[in-house]
Write a structure and sequence with these properties.
Length: 403
């Protein structure tokens, strides 16, 4: 569990550096809303990471793979590359060289998505069924800790320290992930692992099709794509809303949004682990999904009232509490669908689908804000959760698929 926390930290560290922290940087530099929203396309690597995941199931990384194994070898390679890429990203002026910054952000997102492929597969291979909810909660807590660091520290320092220093410090923190990888235990290579590239490309899909059947495969994929769609769409412009819509300063956002968000995440992980163990993953997906959908309305209320610290604090705490509960149950469900032999590809496919709301439709967020305002935008994000809730109810009726 300690190793999972550290690896979760390594997974979460790059995310904000190409999303919310980058939003803050570009907002402070005077970049227009449309330009900021368009940069959500940088994260398309997270959506399409299943395309190269078979390579990570099939091949060992040169040199490191023979020493550390199939999972840990790739983990270390991507972490070292991220140290270099994040540091380079911070040296670019977003106004003078926006194309270069976008290119480096794409590189960071690609390396981060690739690291996530291996880390997700590692967790799925390592955790027994009864450990998945708790293991997911610990991993996500580490992940959220990294978001606090990259959000709180960066936003608090953003008004006082050059962004190249901030991004350089974040690059150095990736070394924590390197230490976690070296301390981790390599899972045993399961029977049935792909022996050729052709098998690596086809086996993940054939295995899933044979085990679940066409109807349950379609249900699982649809549910995965839509369950978190509303939350991910809201995240596209949430920092920009807090600065331009609610009129909070970056330091205030860093102190409240990130700090209270961490508290909500920690409490949510504890609650999720307890309730899932008692009532089961599938039933809790519905309850937690309802909570996730309703919390975006608190941001809509903040947009109506204007700058209000009580509403802001309540929205952040409740939103992160519900989001953590939903995510822990959601990830535990995804693990139950994956086979250890090809878990990198199967988990990457599922998590790629889950990011559609932000990665594919994110550039349209600015248009929604222009059409209906900030309060309408967050009302729309709540409505986007309804299809996922309907599918959650259908998933809950299906027999569990435990590998």
């Amino acid at each position: 569990m300690a190793v999972l926390f550290v690896l979760g930290f390594a997974s979460g560290l790059p995310l904000y550096l190409t999303s919310q922290t980058l939003q803050a940087w570009l907002t402070s530099a005077g970049v227009a809303n449309a330009g900021i929203a368009a940069l959500s396309l940088v994260g398309l690597a997270y959506t399409f990471k299943f395309a190269w995941a078979p390579l990570l199931d099939r091949f060992l990384v040169p040199v490191l793979g023979r020493t550390l194994g199939r999972r840990r070898g790739w983990m270390l390679a991507f972490q070292v590359a991220l140290v270099v890429a994040i540091g380079a990203m911070g040296t670019v002026d977003p106004v003078a060289a926006p194309e270069l910054l976008a290119t480096l952000a794409v590189v960071v997102a690609f390396l981060s998505a690739s690291q996530d492929i291996v880390l997700d597969a590692y967790n799925a291979d390592l955790l027994a069924p009864e450990q998945r909810a708790a293991g997911s909660a610990v991993y996500i807590l580490g992940y959220r800790t990294a978001l606090v660091v990259t959000g709180t520290v960066a936003l608090l320092l953003g008004d006082h320290v050059p962004w190249r220093v901030i991004y350089g410090a974040m690059a150095a923190l990736m070394l924590i992930g390197v230490a976690g990888t070296l301390a981790a235990e390599e899972p045993a290579t399961p029977a049935g692992a792909p022996r050729t590239l052709g098998e690596a490309l086809t086996l993940p899909f054939l295995e899933l099709w044979r085990r679940l059947g066409p109807r349950r495969v379609a249900l699982a994929l649809s549910f995965t794509a839509l369950y978190k769609a509303g939350d991910y769409f809201a995240q596209t412009l949430v920092i920009t809303f807090l600065v331009r819509g609610a009129q909070f300063r970056l330091a205030e956002i860093g102190a409240i949004y990130q700090a209270l968000g961490f508290v909500g995440t920690a409490l949510g992980g504890l609650v999720a682990g307890t309730l899932v163990a008692r009532f089961g993953v599938r039933r809790m997906l519905i309850v937690f999904g309802l909570l996730q959908a309703s919390t975006n309305l608190l941001y809509a209320l903040l947009a109506v009232t204007g700058k209000s610290f009580p509403i802001f604090c309540t929205a952040v705490l409740v939103d992160n509490l519900a989001n953590m509960m939903g995510t822990a149950a959601f990830v535990a469900f995804l693990m139950s669908v994956c086979s250890p032999a090809v878990s990198a590809t199967q988990f990457a496919l599922l998590t790629s689908l889950s990011s559609v709301g932000q990665r594919v439709f994110g550039p349209f967020a600015a248009n929604v804000v222009d059409a209906v305002g900030w309060s309408g935008f967050f009302a729309v994000t709540s409505a986007l959760a309804i299809p996922g809730l309907v599918l959650a109810a259908l998933v809950a009726r299906q027999p569990a698929t435990v590998r």
